[in-house]
């Protein structure tokens, strides 16, 4: 604590500052030069180490995490060098950091949680780079697992940056973890519809859809699922490849509208009937 007090007194002593500047002028100039080219130096070092250490690494998630870790490490080393070049007593600086460790630990609690979250994601691999995942209302492709954050590109081509700590403490769906995905559709028809005809048309549509899988474990299901307030709801379940999910959905819904219209089957919609009573 005595070192901290002595250091702080010197910092606010104008005479000491002038004398220190005179004695360390060359070091200060060197430090300013390093500080001026700080970003360029960091980028070059990161590029060199990336080529040497990570260029042949096949796990893209681990590679992006280690690169972000290396980036932080390079910045810390450069800051350490600049502080030394300016002539500061590093022992005193570390003493101040040690004295403030409780405050620093509290302030950086979430950052530390994100670092360990990234490590957990890489070790247990609930998802990998390239997987399509759903987190809260976001659905997209995992692009990078970094030291603090995971970057997800959604279907609108927007980058969603999620802290790693949140990903390990909340529910996340890995949509492409399995080699197939079930598409569930609810098709509503009016109570006047011929149920047998509705089911027959739905079966024809499913059989005509090129995206529906035909394996022995890929049997589709079509059945009456609900007698709702204003409609009869048929449930249609089919299995598709994850990348064909939307294509299958678009095809089936489009064909339902076309073929139901041709067969005279009406699809109900919410409407308000007003009856005027004459007196």
From TrEMBL:
Mechanosensitive ion channel MscS C-terminal domain span: 185-267
GO annotations of cellular component type: plasma membrane
Database matches in Pfam families: MS_channel_1st, MS_channel_2nd, MS_channel_3rd
PROSITE patterns linked: UPF0003 (PS01246)
Mechanosensitive ion channel MscS domain mapped to chain residues: 111-176
Annotated compartments: Cell membrane
Domain Mechanosensitive ion channel transmembrane helices 2/3, residue spans: 70-109
Annotated membrane topology: Multi-pass membrane protein
Chief place of localization: membrane
Transit peptide in keyword set: no
Keyword Membrane: yes
Top-rank taxon, per record: Bacteria
Record's keyword terms, sorted: Cell membrane, Membrane, Transmembrane, Transmembrane helix
Chain segments annotated as transmembrane: 25-49, 69-88, 94-124
InterPro entries in the cross-refs: LSM_dom_sf, MS_channel_1st, MS_channel_C, MscS_archaea/bacteria_type, MscS_beta-dom_sf, MscS_channel_2nd, MscS_channel_C_sf, MscS_channel_CS
GO molecular function terms listed in the Swiss-Prot or TrEMBL record: mechanosensitive monoatomic ion channel activity
Family according to the record: Belongs to the MscS (TC 1.A.23) family.
Protein name: Mechanosensitive ion channel
Species in which this protein is naturally found: Streptobacillus felis
């Amino acid at each position: 604590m005595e070192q901290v007090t002595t250091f702080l007194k010197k910092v606010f002593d104008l005479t000491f500052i002038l004398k220190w500047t005179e004695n360390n002028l060359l070091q200060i100039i060197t430090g300013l030069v390093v500080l001026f080219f700080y970003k360029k130096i960091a980028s070059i070092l990161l590029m060199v180490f990336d080529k040497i250490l990570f260029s042949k690494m096949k796990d893209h998630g681990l590679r992006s995490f280690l690169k972000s870790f290396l980036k932080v490490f390079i910045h810390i080393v450069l800051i350490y060098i600049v502080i030394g070049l300016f002539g500061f007593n590093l022992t005193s600086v570390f003493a101040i950091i040690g004295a403030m460790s409780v405050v620093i630990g509290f302030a950086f609690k979430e950052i530390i949680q994100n670092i360990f979250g990234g490590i957990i994601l890489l070790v247990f691999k609930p998802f990998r780079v390239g997987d399509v995942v759903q987190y809260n209302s976001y659905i997209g492709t995992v692009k990078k697992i970094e030291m603090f954050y995971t970057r997800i590109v959604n279907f609108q081509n927007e980058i969603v940056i999620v802290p790693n700590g949140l990903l390990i403490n909340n529910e996340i769906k890995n949509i492409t973890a399995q080699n197939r995905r079930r598409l569930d559709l609810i098709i509503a028809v009016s109570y006047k519809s011929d149920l047998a005809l509705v089911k027959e048309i739905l079966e024809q549509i499913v059989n005509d859809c090129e995206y529906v899988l035909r394996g022995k474990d890929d049997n589709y299901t079509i059945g009456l699922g609900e007698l709702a307030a204003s409609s009869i709801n048929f449930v249609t379940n089919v299995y598709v490849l994850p990348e064909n999910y939307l294509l299958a959905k678009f095809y089936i819904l489009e064909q339902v509208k076309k073929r139901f219209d041709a067969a005279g089957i009406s699809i109900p919609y919410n409407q308000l009937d007003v009856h005027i009573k004459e007196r």
